[in-house]
Each structure stands twice: as structure tokens, then as C-alpha cells.
Specification:
2 domains, about 90 residues, elongated, 3 helices, mainly alpha, about 0% strand
Length: about 90
């Protein structure tokens, strides 16, 4: 084989690996994305005493964890202040 052909194969292999890695990294984000409107409805059902399925409960737990992670990333100075005085 010529050097030109070997170089072409190397470039082609690098492109294939790059595409594979791109799709492997991008795919889980869509799968793990949380719809907080769905989570809110699930939480309300749970608070109303309804029994959630195992999948619904797992989704709700993931949503809670994502919410807490997002809330912790907000600087304390940007968080709303709570009035602790009793009315």
C-alpha cells in the first residue's frame, strides 16, 4: 500500500472515532433530561397520597436531585430572602 492510502485510512478512522464519541456523549443528555412540569405533577400526586410506579418514583428522585444541584449553583446573594419574622 502506498503512504497516501495509509494516511487516508488513518484520517478516515479518526473521523469515525470522532463521530462515534460525539454521538455517545450527546445521546445520554437527551435521555436524562428532566421535565420539571412532569416532576411537579408526580410530586403533587405523591403528596396527595397516590402510589407512584417504580419508574415514576425514580424519575421524581432524579428531578429532586437535579433541582437541588441547580439550586446549589445559584450564589447565595442571588437567592430570594426569606422573611423569618412571624406575622
Amino acid at each position: 500500500m502506498s503512504r497516501w492510502f495509509s494516511g487516508l485510512l488513518l484520517v478516515l478512522a479518526a473521523v469515525i472515532v470522532g463521530i462515534t464519541v460525539t454521538f455517545a456523549v450527546a445521546q445520554p443528555q437527551g435521555k436524562n433530561k428532566i421535565d420539571f412540569n412532569v416532576a411537579k405533577k408526580l410530586r403533587q400526586r405523591s403528596l396527595n397520597g397516590e402510589k407512584l410506579t417504580k419508574e415514576e418514583q425514580e424519575y421524581l428522585e432524579r428531578a429532586k436531585a437535579a433541582f437541588l444541584k441547580k439550586a446549589k449553583s445559584i450564589p447565595k446573594s442571588a437567592r430570594p430572602r426569606q422573611n423569618l419574622q412571624s406575622a
